[in-house]
Structure formats: C-alpha cells, structure tokens
Write a structure and sequence with these properties.
D-Maltodextrin-Binding Protein, domain 2, inositol monophosphate 1-phosphatase activity, seven-stranded mixed beta sheet, 290 residues, 8 helices, Fructose-1,6-Bisphosphatase, Chain A, domain 1, five-stranded mixed beta sheet, alpha+beta, 2 domains
Length: 290
C-alpha cells in the first residue's frame, strides 16, 4: 500500500494533538520526575535522561508510524527507542523526502529543576533547509511554529495552526544569551548588554531565558556553539522566519543541512536587529584573532 508524502503543514497539523497530550504529560510529571542513569554529554544540560524524554518520543513515534509509516524520523533518544528500527531511515533524504526530528524535552536541566522554560521541539527537514518547526512550552501553555518562507506564529496550546497569530519583532531587552561554551564572549559584550552565560550563570533557583526569548523580546541576541538540527538550529529557524538575522560566527549564511555532519550546523549568531548582529559578529571576529 502506497502512502503519499505529506506536506510539512500536514505533518504539524497531524502531530499537534499528540503533542498537546505530550505537553500535558510533561507538566503532570515535572514535580514527580526522577532522572534515569546519565547519558553521555559534555555539559550538565545533557546529563539527565528522564522518563519524560523516552515517553514523549514514543508517543510521537507511534503517531508517525500509524499515520505516515514511510516517513523518516530522528529522535534525540533514538538509540534507546524500541521504535527506531521500524522507521525507513533516521537520515536526511533527497529533496522532498522529509526527515522529522524531535527533541522531547529541550532543556532537561530546566525541567528537572522545576523551571517553566523547557520545550518540546519538532522539526520537518528537507535536504537543504528546515521546512517547519514547532516548539511547545508545556508549562506556559503556548507554542511557536514556522513554515519555510511563511513567517513565525504563536498561540495557546488549544489553538490550531490557523488560529495562531504572526510574531512581530518589536523592542527587545538589551540582553544577550550565551549558550554552553560561549563564556568568552561575555567580557566583549558587557559594555552594551547584560549578558547571561548559560554555563556559568545558570541557577536551579533563579530562572533564565531560553533561546526563544528573542521572539518574546526577553533577549536581543543569542550565540550558540553548535546549531543542532533538533534544537539550536531549529530555534534559530523560528527566529529567522520572524525576521531575526541568523548567521554563523563568521557572518556567513548557515550551510545547507545536507552538507553538515552529526545532525548539526556550526555555531550560530541570532540577532533581533542589524546593530545587535554587528556587535555579536565583532566579538566573534575578535575571539577568532586571539
């Protein structure tokens, strides 16, 4: 039996009801969750693999296999999942042969510490670029989504895609968010901005913004060490579709996905305005010369 290839919008529309269930599950378990044994990683955000990660991924896998059985799928926990072997592939395909990816709990450390800024991130990838991203904030009952070339939209979890409103970039706080391993940028930016260095400024007691803060005006720019397809690059795509400037650390356009390795683009700069981008780019160039 043949199954026609769904459009990126159809994939989002089909999975949204399941992701609402996943969001409710994540909220219910947050106070109760206990970390499973650690998984490999080079920072404390990658330390804890939780029941929620595995359960949410399983829910999405079941929905995909039951609805779009020929789809490609890469989940963050693919090595632990019993469903990985049933998907046609976990790799990028040719043009039009989409790969769906999932980060079931982006910000596991946020989640375990009881903060509300963790997310569930689902993407639809073409061979060269993101076609769609949907990022849910379960604890806030909101989500963002973007389709390639159509802008970024937001709504409450009860809203269907058509009911969401366009994200308009307005005034932003003069705050720069540095991802893990980017602390060397801080002294170069402190003259013009308040700088939050995730690796050193994170606290289990005081919540910091996440990378989607640029969409709500909480931050005016972010710098990340690597743009992983399932999270960092996905959130950068949301920002870009909303009108932000997204480049690599040398100011180049991010490379096509099919030229990247290990499901990751190189380090990215995301800025709400040209002036912010120039400040971040100047800092990156200074560090490169050092």
């Amino acid at each position: 039996m043949s199954h026609p290839t769904p459009t990126p919008r159809q994939i989002l529309e089909t999975l949204l009801p399941y992701l609402r269930v996943a969001a409710g599950y994540a909220c219910q378990l947050q106070p109760l969750i206990r970390a499973l044994p650690n998984k490999d990683g080079d920072n404390f955000f990658a330390e804890a693999l939780t029941d929620a990660d595995l359960s949410i991924q399983t829910l999405v896998e079941v929905a995909l296999l039951g609805t779009f059985p020929n789809i490609r799928f890469y989940g963050e926990e693919h090595e632990q999942s019993g469903n990985t072997k049933y998907f046609r592939s976990i790799e990028l395909g040719e043009k039009g042969d989409y790969l769906v990816t999932l980060d079931p709990i982006d910000g596991t450390k946020f989640y375990l510490d009881g903060h509300n800024n963790y997310q569930i991130i689902l993407t639809v990838l073409n061979s060269d670029e993101f076609e769609a991203v949907l990022a849910i904030s379960p604890a806030l009952n909101t989500y963002y989504y973007a389709l390639r070339g159509e802008g970024t939209f937001t709504g409450s979890l009860e809203d269907n895609l058509d009911a969401c409103v366009s994200v308009k970039l307005e005034s932003t706080e003069p705050i720069i968010l540095l991802g893990w391993g980017m602390s060397e940028f801080k002294p170069l930016l402190q003259k013009n901005y308040d700088v939050i260095d995730v690796g050193n400024d994170y606290s289990s007691d005081a919540q910091i913004p996440n990378h989607n803060g640029i969409l709500s005006g909480c931050v005016s720019g972010t710098v990340i060490r690597a743009g992983k397809f399932i999270d960092g690059a996905a959130l950068a795509f949301l920002a870009q579709e909303a009108g932000c400037i997204v480049t690599t650390h040398d100011g180049s356009v991010p490379p096509p996905l099919n030229t990247c390795e290990n499901y990751s683009r190189p380090g990215l700069i995301v800025a709400a305005s040209e002036s912010v981008h120039q400040h971040l780019l100047a800092a990156a160039k200074t560090l490169k010369k050092a």
